[in-house]
Amino acid sequence: MSLRREPPLRRLKGPALREYAPTFAALGDETRLHLVAAMCVGGTMSITQLTAGTAITRQAVTRHLQILADAGLVRDVKLGRERLWALEPTRLEQARHSLDMIAQQWDHALMRLKATLEQ
Amino acid sequence: MSLRREPPLRRLKGPALREYAPTFAALGDETRLHLVAAMCVGGTMSITQLTAGTAITRQAVTRHLQILADAGLVRDVKLGRERLWALEPTRLEQARHSLDMIAQQWDHALMRLKATLEQ
DNA sequence: CCAATATGCAACAAGGAGGTTGCATATGAA
DNA sequence: TTCATATGCAACCTCCTTGTTGCATATTGG
């Protein structure tokens, strides 16, 4: 069995695949998915508003929002004494595209395998 | 400011959005993304082969593969003394679709906002 | 001005995630 | 058979994540 090194999968137009780990990790939490969904439906929302839809404290929600922001998935604006949060669909789109690339690469590999077998 | 409860975002055809949390969490790790990429390029690979592309032990790779399997992202077959792993693109496609739904919902919300403002 | 509201910040605890080592077991090859 | 290879399993350690509580600060409204 040949332990050949696999090439680093360089067909993504944007960042390398590994760099999406923080993005997917940010989406990999029920509470944060709920927050994303809430902003999706409710548009721009304050921390207190977002907390109302959960069973955890406002401080915990703040930290979830910060994680989403670090991943580039949401954006915040201070307005008076409030801090309003909204979705940032660009990174979401990039993540979606990265999954596309994986699936495409996989299909391509399958076709190559088929061609090899038919040879 | 009205603390209205947001509705639970029920426009996904498959599982509810929250149920994708384990899937995204599985993708939210550099090592596992690397494994996915390796299988993507290399097709069906054994644990030892997959370990060769990382800096961690075989046992750690095994656990990462188990996490990916629990998320439905990979599938394994025993063959002799080897255990071969391969990508399972179906769940990947579902995850991609869920991101699509979020983006679409968001765009829809933006249009509604625009319509409200122009009223 | 004063009280209520909205948020920020920090310390702390519990649990899970990710990694290692050590050893047992199964299978292939010589 | 006998040795090397491929994998399974479990104990253990460390650090990060997620949540809490308590208190400080800033803004708004009456």
Report on this structure.
2 copies of one chain form a homodimer. Chain A is mostly helical and 119 residues long. Chain A has a single domain (17-118), classed as Arc Repressor Mutant, subunit A, CATH 1.10.10.10. In chain A, 58% of the residues lie in helices and 12% in strands. In chain A, β2 and β3 (82-87) form a beta hairpin. In chain A, α1 runs antiparallel to α4. The longest helix of chain A is centred in the C-terminal third of the chain and has 30 residues, at 89-118. Mean pLDDT of chain A is 87; it is low at 1-10. At the A-B interface, α1, α2, α3 and α5 of A face α1, α2, α3 and α5 of B. The first copy, chain A, binds a DNA duplex (30 and 30 nucleotides) through α4.
In short:
Two copies of one chain form a homodimer. The first copy, chain A, has 119 residues and is mainly α.
